[in-house]
Amino acid sequence: MGPLDGDSTLGALADEVAAFAAREGVAAKSIGVEYLEGLGQIVVSLGYTTGEAPYPIRLQTVLLGKIDVFGKDFTALEEAMGAAAAGKSNIICHELYLTGAGEIFLVVMTHEG
């Protein structure tokens, strides 16, 4: 748990999650991300297993746009997610979060090994 970076991305918290996985020798499987507007903090949970060989991970944050741009058009949101993920390889999972300013971000966890 920590503050968002100045550009509303995970910033240093993304590095902390990757460092935890490396330090603990776990195989990351999933993430959960929730922005707590009242506290101005972001919570990232990491799902992992100790029953597999560990591997390095990376969390990358991509701004998809403002919530009012997407409205109720989930097709546009899906297309924005696809475009944001298109340049990334070895994706394990992804998660969305919404800031108090109405920005939607995609967090992508990738296998870096």
The arrangement of helices and strands along the chain is HEEEHHEE
- Our estimate of the beta-strand percent is 35-45%
Number of self-contained structural domains: 1
Strand order of the largest sheet: 3-5-4
Number of DSSP strands?
A: 5
Distance N terminus to C terminus?
25 Å
Total count of helical runs of at least 4 residues: 3
Uncertain parts? none
Helix/strand class: alpha+beta
Provide the residue-averaged pLDDT. 94
The major β-sheet equals: 3 strands, antiparallel
How would the global form be characterised? Answer: globular
- The oligomerization state is single chain
Descriptive account of the structure:
This protein is of the alpha+beta class and 113 residues long. It has a 3-stranded antiparallel β-sheet with strand order 3-5-4. Strands 1-2 form a two-stranded antiparallel ribbon. The radius of gyration is 14 Å and the shape is globular. 20% of the residues are buried.
Secondary structure blueprint with pairings:
Elements: H1 12-24, E1 27-36, E2 41-49, E3 57-66, H2 67-70, H3 74-86, E4 91-98, E5 103-111
Antiparallel strand pairs: 1-2, 3-5, 4-5
List keywords for this structure.
single chain; 113 residues; alpha+beta; 3-stranded antiparallel β-sheet; two-stranded antiparallel ribbon; 3 helices; 27% helix; globular
